[in-house]
Amino acid sequence: MAVDGVVLVVAEASGDVLRPASLELVTVGKQIARDLGGSSVALVIGSEIGSAARQIASAGVDRVLVADDPRLQHLPIDAITAIVTGVIQDVMPSVLLIPATTAGIEYGPRVAARLRLGMAADCIAFSVEDDSLIAVRPVLGGRVQTAVRFGPSRPQIASVRAGCFEQATVGDGGPDSEVVAVELTVDDQRIQVIGVAEKEQAGGVALEEADTIVGGGRGLKEPVNFALVEKLAAALGGAVAATRAVTDAGWRPHHEQVGQTGRSISPRLYIAVGISGAVQHLVGVQGSDYIVAINRDPDAPIFKIASFGIVGDLFDIVPAIINELNA
Questions:
Q1: Euclidean distance between CA atoms 230 and 246, whole angstroms
Q2: Could you tell me if residue 197 is inside a domain?
Q3: Are residues 158 and 225 in the same domain?
Q4: Which of 215, 220, 309, 325 is most buried (most C-beta within 10 Å)?
Q5: Is 195 a domain residue?
Q6: When comparing pLDDT for 297 and 46, which is higher?
Q7: By residue range, what is the domain housing residue 120?
Q8: Rg for the chain (alpha carbons), in Å?
Q9: Are 96 and 156 spatial neighbours (Cβ–Cβ below 8 Å)?
Q10: Nearest C-alpha neighbor of 281 from the set 262, 264, 266, 259
Q11: DSSP 60
């Protein structure tokens, strides 16, 4: 039987570096725990992750569990599945939150299948009603959002899309870490990661790590004009992003796509160049601290969520901004 109100979040770390999605999960987990009148527990998984565990402990969780083992480097799927399943059986949480990362997409459903439970994947919002979790997730290629109400089974399992929530603030102090025994069978080690290729980056900076992102839309008229977006991103030391219409047209690679069917981002600054603001795109960028929109249509939907709006011809405005920055 689950312990009422306990929310378990699975944090991922690469050595001493806590992955940003993990801090977003802490934010969500603490809020759900408050709504349930319970507590938040973080499970940190990886190899040589002492520093990452201290970071998440200082982010305000009530308890920190650490599975630290060389065999967990690069988060092999079968091993992570076994560890998460074992911790669930020990902690007995009401809610389990998993990051919708490359690893989380793999081990999340496996954990749910082992426990014969359902799972809501790629969630972008949560609420609690009558002690039951309600998760909002995009469906039909991002065209529709649906609310999923969990049944009585526990834990209620959901994966969380990165970039949809604020990252919890890392401070000082926090609870001492509790060591999780890493006991793996031969079957748990069938898959081993022997190396990791360099991930694709946009504009020289990875979208997930960029403080500044410049996005371009169909308002740029043709692929060659994306050079303006690249130059503005370079001047700001930021990354390049694009809308689905642009990537579908073959103007930009798909790893730069931002929106419900692409990546959700949460930079300090997002500059939308020639983007009208379809709802699917707005959902993907709403986690940005500040949004600056440049569009000649004063009624463009992007202006409804923009912190600052510039109405005018982007082919005049963007070069002027670049010149000022370079000066």
A1: 14
A2: no
A3: no
A4: 215
A5: no
A6: 297
A7: 7-189
A8: 21
A9: yes
A10: 259
A11: T
CA 319 – CA 325 distance, rounded (Å): 10
The pLDDT tens digits for 264-318 are 888 899 999 999 998 888 888 888 889 999 999 999 999 999 999 999 999 999 9
Number of compact structural domains in the chain = 2
Cis peptide before 109 (omega within 30 of 0): no
Per 3-state DSSP, what percentage of the chain is helix, strand, and coil (rounded to 5)? 35, 25, 40
Cα 284 to Cα 258: distance, rounded to the nearest angstrom: 6
**What CATH number has the domain bearing residue 222?**
3.40.50.1220
Question: Tokens 């940190």 label which residue?
Answer: 44
Helices 20-36, 50-57: inter-axial angle, 10-degree rounding? 40
112 contact partners, CB below 8 Å, separation of at least 6: 118, 119, 157
Q: Which residue among 189, 222, 249 closes a domain? A: 189
Closest CA to 29 of 156, 218, 172: 156
Does one domain contain both 106 and 63?
Answer: yes
Burial category of 195 from C-beta neighbours within 10 Å (exposed 0-12, middle 13-18, buried 19 and up): exposed
Could you tell me the two tokens for 23?
Answer: 């801090």
CATH assignment of the domain containing 22: 3.40.50.620
Which residues are 14's β-sheet partners?
Answer: 17
Bond before 301 cis per omega within 30 degrees: no
Of 127, 158, 189, the residue at which a domain comes to its end is 189
Instruction: Report yes or no on 202 lying in a domain.
Output: no
Structure tokens at 106: 């793999």
**Amino acid sitting at position 261:** T
What tens digit of pLDDT does each residue of 107-155 get? 999 999 999 999 999 898 999 988 889 999 887 766 678 898 998 889 9
Residue type (1 letter), 98: I
Q: How far apart are the first and last CA of the chain?
A: 64
Helix/strand/coil for 314:
helix
Whole-prediction pTM: 0.71
